[in-house]
Structures are given as structure tokens and as C-alpha cells.
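Hi support team,

I submitted a single chain yesterday and got back a structure, but I'm not sure I'm reading the C-alpha cell output correctly. Could someone confirm the output below corresponds to the sequence I sent? I've pasted both exactly as they appear in my results page.

Thanks,
R.
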Amino acid sequence: MKASAFSYTRATSVVNALELLGAHGDKAKVLSGGQSLMPAMNLRLISPELIVDIGELAELRGIAVSGEVLTIGALARHVDLQRSPEVAAHAPLLTEAIAHVAHPAIRNRGTLGGSLAHADPASELPACMVALNAIIVVRGQGSERRIAAEDFFTGIYETALSPRELLVAVELPLRRKDSAHFFREFARRHGDYAIVGLAAQAIIERDAFADLRLVFFAVGDRPVLAKTAKRLINVAVSPKVLLDASRALAEELAPLDDQQASASMRRHLAKVLLVRCASALLGRRDLNAGGPV
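Hi R., thanks for writing in. Yes, this is the structure output for that exact sequence:
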């Protein structure tokens, strides 16, 4: 199947792109890397009248550190993130996660902004943004909004981005010296969409969690920032504490059945990831012994 007929224009600047989006609204779609947009158009899941190509806008590229913030342009490609020394130094969770995004051909073309705007609930990067407490920078004609990542994703393929706005950058707080991260996912094959995944960012003080953000993906209609993490903060984590947290997590999550896995299987795998995460971050092999396997 091929896409229905559409018009195409290449934006010459962010201002020009916003003018086009302002004029056409939800009849237009933005093309950055095209790795999600084009398949959706070819399957006729969407049929925009106008494609606004922003792929050549140099002002939306770049990865830079300024003060206490790591800023990544919306058109930074996955491979740029994977190879960036700034990302490796200040957001290593992102470096690790990128290796699980599809396959090299996709990572060479796909962009950070495109992935976040697409908002696939099984995607790695939205979950990482929530775990890292990122700010999504969104620009409209004459205005700019800064949206916390956990508020940006609102449903399956839905975000707080309006049809007349453009995602221009992501801002991440710089990694603290006492921070640690964890990333794992279960998939049929490496590069396939995750059945269940976990992106976690923690602050560890005196062999305990002073802060912990557990973000599960492929278990709901958006990345799930687990409230269960509070059970593990500022306590001596024991196998019993972790088992109780695992049970609470299973009650908190509300995954759906699909052709990849049942809801009960997803709950079980999420519990497995929780135990492995706590064990790895705290360097405690004994925590893995009594938990879900």
C-alpha cells in the first residue's frame, strides 16, 4: 500500500516551519527522519495533506552543555546520541538505551524529536526522557513552552504538542556524581519493539536510594513513572522490602494483552526488571536471589 496524495514543502527555517504549521494546522505533518511517519502514511493510518520537511534545519541540530544543562536539538539523530561524548558523560542512560532502538539503518535516520513526538508507548526514548527528568522545549508562532517529560506524553501516539507547534529541543540536567542508571528490555529479538522495558535513574547515598525514578515502557499507553519506587527510597532494601515492592508494582501497572504478550506476562516481566534493577544499582546480588525470576 502507498500513501494517499499529499503536498510537500521543505522548511527554510524554524520560523518558516511554524508559519506553515500555523496555516495548515492538523492537515500538516512534520517530517524529520521519517522512520515512523512514512510507514504510517504508507499504511494509510494517517493521510496528511501537507508534509513539512524540517530535515535540513541546522538550527535544530547539535548537542551542547551550558551551565547545568545538556541541550539536545530535536534533529539530533539516534546515531549522534550514541556517539556523543557529552551524552555519554552526562546522560549515560541515553547512550545505553539507544543501542536498543531498532537497527542501524533506523538509527542512522531517526531523530530524537521525531521519536518523542511520535510517542510510541513501547519506545525507549520517551521512557528515558521521563527517567532523566527532561524538559521538552516546544515552540509555536511567537511563543515557547517548556514541558516536563512526564507531562508531555498523554496517550498512545499522543503528546501535549499541538498541530501548530514544533518540538525544537530537549534539556537534561547534568548527571550527578552519586547517580546511577539502569536500562533493560525484553524483546523477541534485539531491535524489535519491547515487550516490557525499564529505564531507571537513581541517586545512591550510603548504599541506599536517596532518589529513584523507575520508568516502565510497553506496559501502558505512555511511559509509566512507577509510584512503587517510593517504597525503596531512604530504606534499607532487603529481599522482603523488594518483594513487597514487586507486588505493589504488579497492582500499579495496567498493561494490555496483545499478540506479543499477555497482561499477566508483562506484569511478571516488570517485576523481574524491578528486582534486577535494584540488585544492579545497589551492587547487591542477594536481592536477586529471593525475587521474581
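A quick pointer for reading it: The radius of gyration is 20 Å. Let us know if anything else looks off.

Best,
Support desk
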